[in-house]
Specification:
The chain is low in regular secondary structure and 76 residues long. The protein has one domain (1-59). It has one helix and three strands, in the order ββαβ. A three-stranded antiparallel beta sheet has the order 2-1-3. A hairpin with a 5-residue loop joins β1 (23-25) and β2 (31-33). The relative contact order is 0.31.
Length: 76
């Protein structure tokens, strides 16, 4: 089972490509950009879990293991 690799920050909507660094996730895969994770003191506002660096997925694996295209930005 692979990570969902959500395409955006839930807090500000910033694009977070699966093959680029800069995304942070909790154990439920809630996803935030580095700036929002810092503003949240590395705590997920949804579950209270720790936000950690999300690993990247190599571009050549996207066809076999595609990242999610469903956006999760909740707006302000």
């Amino acid at each position: 089972m692979s990570l969902e690799m959500r395409p955006d920050c839930e807090r500000c909507g910033t694009d977070l490509p699966a093959d680029s660094p800069g995304a942070f996730i909790c154990s439920f895969e809630c996803t935030f950009c580095a700036e929002c994770a810092d503003a949240l003191d590395d705590r997920c506002p949804n579950c209270g879990g720790e936000l950690m660096d999300r690993p990247t997925r190599a571009k050549q694996l996207h066809a076999k293991h595609p990242p999610s295209t469903e956006r999760h930005f909740k707006g302000e």
